[in-house]
Design goal:
Strands 5, 6, 7, 8, 11, 12, 13, 14 and 15 form a 9-stranded mixed beta sheet that branches. Strands 2-1-3-4 form a 4-stranded antiparallel beta sheet, with no helix packed on it. It has a two-stranded antiparallel ribbon with strand order 9-10. The chain folds into 3 domains: 53 residues, Structural Genomics Hypothetical 15.5 Kd Protein In mrcA-pckA Intergenic Region, Chain A, CATH 3.10.290.10; 90 residues, Alpha-Beta Plaits, CATH 3.30.70; 80 residues, Alpha-Beta Plaits (2-Layer Sandwich). The mean pLDDT is 93. The chain is 24% helix and 29% strand. The chain is of the alpha+beta class. The structure holds uracil. The site of uracil has 9 residues, from helix 6.
């Protein structure tokens, strides 16, 4: 891999930033100052140091994004409609990113983008019981009967009965409710369909957390950042059980 691409992919800066850093002579490869931005690096064997810090190539990347409404979470959608991976800058352009658990085009909130297929499977598999929490606003007031129905497992249609889920009503007034829904599975339009089965309609949906990982509220819609090592280790541990 080219030296500038490696440094950009490892989050040192944009491609333009890292070109400047390399030209300034602060990057060494195997102890020798490297000024050629296109120098080919053996990611397994070469030792790259940038501004005194060793830079270790990572095969997998894990990004947390605050998905905005109006953008598809996955690439197999409508031509002309943007997908979340398009919002990720050139720094991660090398990676083929997919979401670990989709969100509808009009949904917002926590989306994990990664190129680690096993990780995606471990997060979305209902057997792993990684709970996802959604904030919803509804047209129609949710009530204690709905809380009970969610708990018992709602029969959504002839083909699908949802597993037991938690519905926590935050407020119900004036024909509108706000609530938190916790699911351990992630079927197509699942929250919307469960609420529909209770005779109400979801008008707004935002995912707040996946397992113990909470959306970083400092991320503007469309903003993203790499998961910290600790966040990733915690999630992987939860997905193992
Ligand atoms: N459930 C839905 O209905 N939509 C989402 O985007 C996520 C969960």
């Amino acid at each position: 891999m080219r030296l500038d691409r490696l440094l950009a992919n490892m989050g040192i800066g944009s491609r333009r930033d890292v070109k400047k850093i390399i030209s300034s002579g602060t990057v060494t490869v195997n102890g020798v100052t490297a000024r050629d931005t296109g120098l080919e690096i053996d990611t397994e064997g070469d030792e790259v140091v940038c501004c005194g810090r060793p830079v270790k190539y990572r095969k997998f990347v894990y990004l947390m994004m605050n998905k905005p409404s109006g953008v598809l979470s996955c690439g197999d959608g409508v031509p002309g409609v943007k997908v979340c991976a398009d919002l990720v800058g050139d720094d991660y352009g090398f990676y083929d990113l997919s979401p670990a658990g989709r969100l509808d085009v009009d949904s917002e909130g926590l989306l994990i983008l990664t190129n680690d297929g096993d990780f995606i499977h471990s997060i979305i598999s209902p057997n792993k019981k990684v709970g996802k929490v959604y904030f919803i606003r509804t047209d129609g007031e949710l009530d204690e009967g709905d809380v009970q129905r969610f708990k018992e497992g709602i029969k959504v249609d002839d083909d699908f009965t949802a597993k037991s889920a938690e519905l926590k009503i935050l407020k119900s007034i004036g024909g509108v409710s706000e609530a938190l829904v916790t699911l351990s599975e992630g079927k197509y339009h699942q929250v919307k369909r469960m609420v529909k089965a209770c005779g109400k309609t979801v008008t707004y949906l935002k995912r707040l957390s996946i397992g113990g990982l909470k959306l970083d509220e400092s991320l503007a819609p469309g903003g993203y950042r790499p998961l910290t090592d600790e966040e990733l280790a915690d999630l992987k541990q939860q997905a193992e059980h």
